[in-house]
Amino acid sequence: MDLLTEQDTYQSNRLHHLDWLRVIAIGLLMLYHTGMVYVPEWGFHFKHESESTFLQHLMLTLSPWRMGLLWFISGVALRFMLLKQTSGKLLWSRSIQLLFPLLIGVLIVVPPQLYIEMKQAGKMPLEFWPFVYAFYFEPLNYFDDYQSGIWPHIDVNHLWFLRSLWKYSVVLLIVSPLFAHKWAQKAAAFLGHKPFILSIVLIISSLAIDTLLTGDAVREMYGFLLLIFGFYLGSVSVFWQSLSASWLKIALLALISLAVLQLGFSYNWQTGLHQNNEVAAWMLAITYASAKTMPVLAILAIANRYLNRKSSIISELNSWVFPVYIVHQTIIVVAAYLLSDSRMSMAFEGLAVLVLTIMFCWIGVMIIKRSTLLQVSFGVKPMSTSEYHSSYLWRSFVTVSCIPLALELIY
Q1: pTM, whole model, 2 decimals?
Q2: Is 151 helix (H, G, I), strand (E, B) or coil?
Q3: Could you report the per-residue pLDDT of 77-94, keeping only the tens digit for each?
């Protein structure tokens, strides 16, 4: 269970600022996915026609680092959980808490996105309920162009994070004894004392990933990189102390990285200069790698300095971040699709989509609160007094349901 779901990992030593960041990160993700409907040129499951270069620049301030923050936080959570239980027990509990919601997500939450995507592409002649029947029971040749995914025409969409988080968490748990070696501990203490050296290591690592890999592998390995460093340094107190002490310098470097990226986007990337000029290409690559890492460290530093306090509101919101993450993109896509024939301006329509998304996420949370089955299905840790904990049959059913998905992800 990562920081998207965990409610009481740290006890008296809990890093409260990470609770704030988890809520803030999901809020930013909701804004980002709403923007993806309207930003020009960037592919998404449903698009409105738009020529807003301002929105492109606005989205570019979030795009490089938004998921890196969640990856780092998840690594910190995994480390603290491993301090409280054996790796074998953690592997089982983490698998249930990630894979079962992923299974529910790909089978129930994501399909409406596929329907709308196919409708806009002109590749789905059926209405929604006939589509549902075809999706589950008689696909025929409707999905011939949509065969990629966990299973044919059953893909993860925005839930790729849960899929990858489970795989890389398994890897980290297997190799976790290496982090206990004395040399690993000395390296952690050194990096914890030297946030700027850590910054250089992260930038170089991110640059290597961007340079050597292509496609989804870049996104996956970048996430794994931040997960590793969160796991490695999250429990090192001097790391947080050093970040907090250097927060202003780190924040300035992050702002410079994002500002230079905006210039590179306008005068290098958009003009195609990087395709013909090797120096320009390397400068853009270094800038982008910096923009993927420095804002993460800056946000962690600022949050640790100013938000490391308990809040009852944040604690309540914190409990429901996971189900909001699972359902929010489908709500965004459906709302945008239903409003696509309206005559509202793009700004007003986008605001309406965002308001509807927040409203239906809240309704969903209210419904999930009332059912242990729904809580387990959407990644909320049920109370120890719930029927889930008292029913061996129910826990066995959830475990067995996750096995085919786990095998498919492994092989």
Answers
A1: 0.93
A2: strand
A3: 999 999 888 888 999 999
